[in-house]
Every structure is written in C-alpha cells, then in structure tokens.
Amino acid sequence: MGILRLLSILIILLAADLSAQNFRMENVVINSEILSEDRNINIYFPENYQRNNARYPLVLSFDGGNHEMYLPGVRHFLSRNGMIRDFILVSVHNTDRTRDFTPVPNPARQNSGGGVKFYEFLSEELLPYLKDNFRTIDFTIVLGHSLTGMYSMYLVHNYPEQFQAAVAASPYVQYMDDWLAQNISDTDDQLKEESRTIYFSIGSTETDYFEHLDKLKAIYKNAGEMLTWEFRNFENYNHGKTPLLSYYNGLEFIFREWKIPEKPGDDPVADIVSHYKKLSEKYNSEILPGEADLNILGYGFMRSEEFGKAEAIFKYNTELYSQSANVWDSFGEFYENRGEKEKARENYLMAVKNGKELNDPNLAIYERNLKRVSED
Q1: What is the dihedral of CA 140, 288, 336, 304, to 10 degrees?
Q2: Domain 268-374, CATH class in plain words
Q3: Looking at the DSSP assignment, which residues form a beta bridge with residue 202?
Q4: Residues 22-44: what's their mean pLDDT?
Q5: What angle, 0 to 180 degrees and rounded to 10, lies between the N-to-C axes of helices 71-80 and 3-20?
Q6: CATH 1.25.40.10 intervals, the chain
Q7: CB within 8 Å of 248: residues ≥ 6 apart
Q8: Residue 48's pLDDT is what?
C-alpha cells in the first residue's frame, strides 16, 4: 500500500476520532515577562486524565495553530492502539516565528535571533507552569516543522535535561550556513553524555535540503549509543506535506522503548520494574509502565492460563494506579473468574468507590459487577 493511500486512511481515522471524542482542552494565556507579551497556549489532556493518578510526558507543538486540527487525533489513535504512551499535548501558538525560532541572528532576516530568549520563556515560565498545575513527568518532546523543526533539534541538543526528544519535519537546518551542524560539532562531547532521541524527515522533492541534512546524519552516525535517531525520506512529498506523517511516525519511534517487554519471565513484575528502572535512568526521569499496557498484559496471562502471573500484574497495577477505578475492576474480574468471590467483591468495591469519586463513565458497569458477586 502506497504512502498516499496510507495517509488517506489515516486522515479518515483521525477525523473519526476527532468527531467521536470530546477532547478536554484548556486555553491558557501566559503573561510572559521574559518575552514582554501574552502567549496563547492550548493544552489537550489524555482521555483518562481525570480517571487515574498517572503522570504524563509533555509534548510541545510549535506552530501550534497549524497542527491542532489533527494532532489530538494522532495522539488518540496511537495511544488507543497501544503504539505510544499517552501524553499532555501543549499547542504553542506563534507571535513572531522568525524571532522566536532562530537561535542566532541572520542579517538578512529582520528581528531574528531571539531563540535563546524563547528557550528562557519555555524553561522558566511555560514548563514550570505546566509542571506546577498538571500531573507531568520530566520527559518533554518537542515537535516542529521547517524553521521550528530546526529549533526543536536545537533544544534537544543544547538543553537535553529539559527537552529529551524531538520530531522535526523538513527541518530548516541550512539556516545561517548550517549553523546547527556546527553547533552540534562544537559540543560533540555532550552527545556521548546525555540521552536524546531525535526523529527527522524530509520530502523527496526537497532536494535543496539534502546536502545539509547529510551533514547532520554524518555527525549522528558517530555520536554513540546515547543518541537514538531515525531519518526518513518520504517519496513524492513536498515541504508542506511532511508534518502529519512525520509526527505520526516520530511519536511512535520515540515511545517504542516505553513498551512493556514482550515476553517477561517467570517473575513478570520484576522484569517490568527492571526495564523501566533502566529507562528512567537513561532519561533521568521516573518512567513507569502504563496502566492500559499492564491491564492488557494481565488479561493475556489469563487467556494463556498463567494465573499466578496474571494476579501479580493486576496487583501491581492497583499499586501504581490506586486512584483508577478500572484497575480494581479488572482485578475483581480476575478473582471472579477464579471463583474467589470475596476477593472479587473487595476489588469491585474499590472500583465503585473510585468510580463515584472520579465520575467515571463506566460506573454503572462497576456497580453491576459488584452486585453480581454480592447476591449470594
């Protein structure tokens, strides 16, 4: 199946997602002292944000107004199908694109060179606001196209303690005679000291970008294991077409290592804890397995009649996400299927309790389950 056909199907799926889901979005206006202006930010929350105690990574989308039509749908489609970890999407609307996304001034571009000050806005005003007001972890992905794609790569290379990953669609890396490649070369030792993940792309018709991107690829090939990267060239794509497919593929690429190991051993919880401990150490942030991923694994063990493993996984899920209603309901279902009605009832009680507190839309299901095991 060709890329254009795939893209058409994706757009249809995303449109269906957007129409079917009532995405929770908050608009925030930040009065920036650093930039001396108000900045308009739209924040899109995971579907289950109100129904659990999970913390989420952040994804900052530059050129926000250009990509809000489809990015919430991309996120929902990928997370619903277990391809990524769900995240808080932060759409950053532009005021002066040239000023904010150019790290050094270009004499040919009026008002350029404000990229360092924009970084200060991000690190001293926007990120603290998000982390103080919402449940986040210290893992931030930046998305950008063209000039903002170059700037996204700049952030990850120069400030990896705050920006751990980037997706850059058709990044304008030729800015100021390949300034970004030179900047990376000047700080080459840092590539071997801090973990980063970068996905970048180009359309096959953008031939004037090729030699400049080749310089970056040559640097990356010698960067060592602390840099995880992937480059894609989309056949018959021009500059304007690359963002949607780049963001879709790039997010999947970044979150690939966040997945639960496919075949955990005899002690699956120990194996999972070990995997996420290594991942957390790599990015210097506490990264935990996802609630939905653990639930799927638990039911998989039930189907294969590995009941000891299933019980351990469901129990671990209730320990990590104790405020969720669904984890207790699943644990209750496990015990009910095993004929242990009293344990089932105890877990269904917790599901109903949390469901009422969170106004969970599945509360009626939890109540029916509780009633069923309480009738004898």
Answers
A1: 100
A2: mainly alpha
A3: 233
A4: 92
A5: 90
A6: 268-374
A7: 10, 74, 78
A8: 85
Percent composition of the chain: helix, strand, coil (DSSP 3-state, to 5) = 55, 15, 30
CATH topology of domain 3-258: Rossmann fold (3.40.50)
| Token pair belonging to 317 | 């899920």
Tally Cβ neighbours within 10 Å of residue 3: 13
DSSP 279-335: HHHHHTS-----HHHHHHHHHHHHHTT-HHHHHHHHHHHHHH-TT-SHHHHHHHHHH
Residue with tokens 């979150």: 255
Structure tokens at 173: 């890396």
Q: What's the residue count for the chain? A: 376
pLDDT tens-digit readout, 256-283: 999 998 778 899 999 999 999 999 998 8
**pLDDT at residue 220 in the model:** 92
Tell me the C-alpha distance between 347 and 349, whole Å: 5
What local confidence, expressed as pLDDT, does residue 124 receive?
A: 98
Q: How far is CA 77 from the centre of its chain?
A: 12
DSSP H helix total and E strand total for the chain: 17, 8
Helix residue ranges, H only, 35-70: 64-67
Start and end residues for every CATH 3.40.50.1820 domain found in the chain: 3-258
Predicted local confidence at residue 296, as pLDDT:
93
In sequence order, which residues have a C-beta less than 8 Å from that of residue 1 and are 6 or more positions away? none
Which of 124, 114, 186 lies closest to 157, judged by CA? 186
The neighbour count for residue 117, using CB atoms within 10 Å, is: 15
188-217 pLDDT, tens digit per residue, is: 566 667 789 999 999 999 999 999 999 999
DSSP 164: -
Render pLDDT for 84-111 as a digit per residue (tens, 0 to 9).
Answer: 999 999 999 999 999 999 999 999 999 9
The letter for the amino acid at 110 is Q
Taking the C-alpha atoms of residue 67 and residue 240, their distance in angstroms, rounded to an integer, is 12
Question: End-to-end distance of the chain based on CA atoms, in angstroms?
Answer: 56
- Min mean pLDDT across 1-5, 59-63, 345-349 is at 1-5
Cα 120 from Cα 102, distance rounded (Å): 13
